[in-house]
Write a structure and sequence with these properties.
Blueprint: E1 5-9, H1 14-24, E2 28-33, E3 44-46, H2 49-58, H3 61-66, E4 73-77, E5 83-88, E6 100-102, H4 103-114, E7 119-122, E8 126-131, E9 136-140, E10 145-148, E11 150-153, H5 160-165, E12 171-185, E13 193-199, E14 203-209, E15 214-222, H6 233-244, H7 251-260, E16 265-273, E17 278-279, E18 282-284, H8 287-290, H9 299-316, H10 320-339, H11 354-367, H12 370-379
Parallel strand pairs: 1-2, 1-11, 2-7, 4-13, 11-18
Antiparallel strand pairs: 3-6, 4-5, 8-9, 9-10, 12-15, 12-16, 13-14, 14-15, 17-18
Helix pairs in contact: 1-4, 1-9, 2-9, 6-7, 9-10
């Protein structure tokens, strides 16, 4: 299927990764991004497992390592800021990974890798799709129309391109949580450790260092699905402040930051379970197809793996229909595994009462004790040599390619 003209929508992580591999395989690639420029905000993400392997294949592993967030591990603290337990980066119980990078820094690396060979159109999105046996007629927000052989939506959980192209709507599995992200000014209480604090009323505060001299904050809490739906930015600020006011720890500091921040993100936490990942000549990848949520910690893995496999199958398949079919066959078992959460999660991690918070901190303290760490050193996973989660074919050396 070499030389086909493909439109990719979304310039976050899945989109540029997909564009890189499609271009390498000889496709003519255009990336359309709704935002007027790269969206460089966001929190810490980790590049591990299949994502790390793909990064090595792309030659960007060292660039990612050079943009490390400086985080040395995770500390659980109580509302008096006393350390309950700490897990350094080498611990199997730490959420900090060897390749820890800000989402925006990874987006920049992927864009810089592809911008010479791939056409990026910022401030542009699809308003209409018309599929024929030969192509897809795409109408953009600029009113221009253009023909493409295929369209692939690498957008977020609320993908508009998916809505235009797919008859069947995905299931959104709400996890009972809302989350807010923002960048805040670093203070004397911040260090190279991430700090996790449980507060009453089902609130988790998380402050993490970055490599730009600031601190990345997230506030996650229990809520009903539509409790904060459809709020304006100012209404989001007000609702968030109202929820955390009086929670102790650094809530007053966070309230001041919420009032002045320019990069607040506030939304429900839901998984996407799409019954199909393609409709005719349109396919979906990344969060648009199978968002696992930050709770699962597999977003980057899924985005980069899905992009790599989809591009490779388009390169090796005799038809796009076969490519889409095999892409789903290879990815769906991995997606389903990544979307599985341990029993009681996330509920057990977000206790609402003072007693519940105290019990959770006691359990965490036990896991962080020296005897427990010694036991886990024998049974915990080795971060430097994790088992393979999914097979990543070497598509460039596949011998059964055939042209469409």
């Amino acid at each position: 299927m070499k030389d086909k003209k493909i439109l990719v929508t979304g310039a976050s992580i899945a989109g540029p990764t997909l564009a890189y591999w499609l271009n390498r395989y000889g496709f003519n690639v255009t990336v359309a991004e709704r935002a007027p420029e790269l969206r460089l905000g966001g929190q810490n993400i980790d590049v591990k497992g299949p994502a790390a392997e793909i990064a090595r294949k792309m030659g960007i592993e060292e660039a990612i390592r050079a943009q490390n967030t400086t985080e040395v591990g995770l500390r659980f603290v109580n509302t008096r800021n006393k350390t309950v337990a700490e897990f350094p980066v080498e611990s199997s119980l730490s959420m900090t990974q060897e390749l820890e990078i800000l989402r925006g820094d990874l987006v920049r690396i992927l864009y810089d890798l592809t911008k010479v060979d791939v056409e990026y159109r910022f401030g542009e999105h699809i308003t209409q799709l018309e599929q024929t046996n030969a192509n897809v007629n795409v109408t953009f927000s600029s009113s221009r129309s253009e023909l493409f052989d295929l369209v692939i939506a690498a957008e977020g959980i609320g993908s508009k391109t998916r809505e235009l192209a797919f008859a069947k709507r995905p299931e959104f599995k709400f996890l009972g949580l809302y989350t807010a992200y923002l960048t805040i000014t670093r203070s004397a209480t911040d260090s190279s450790w991430a700090r996790w604090c449980n507060a009453e009323n089902g609130i988790v505060f998380l402050l993490r260092p970055d490599n730009h001299g600031e601190t990345r904050a997230s506030i996650t809490f229990t809520a009903t699905e539509d409790e904060y739906k459809g709020l304006s930015l100012e209404e989001q600020r007000s609702a968030l402040i109202g929820r955390i006011r009086g929670s102790g720890w650094e809530s007053e500091r966070l309230i001041m930051e919420i009032n002045k921040t320019s990069d607040l993100y506030f939304d429900r936490i839901s998984q996407v379970k799409a019954p199909e990942w393609s409709e005719g000549r349109v396919a979906i990848v990344g969060d648009a197809a199978y968002c696992a949520t930050p709770i699962a910690g597999k977003g980057t893995d899924l985005a980069m793996t899905g992009a790599y496999i989809l591009a490779g199958e388009l390169y090796t398949a005799s038809t796009y229909q076969k490519a889409f079919e095999v892409y789903e066959q290879k990815m769906r078992p991995y997606v389903e595994k990544c979307q599985q959460l341990p029993p009681g999660i996330p509920g057990l991690v977000y206790p609402r009462t003072k007693i519940g918070v105290g019990l959770l901190n006691t359990v965490v303290s036990a896991f962080g004790s020296r005897p427990a760490k010694w036991v886990f050193s024998f049974f915990g996973k080795d971060k430097k040599a994790p088992k393979q989660e999914i097979t990543l074919p070497d598509y460039l050396n596949t011998t059964d390619r055939s042209a469409n």
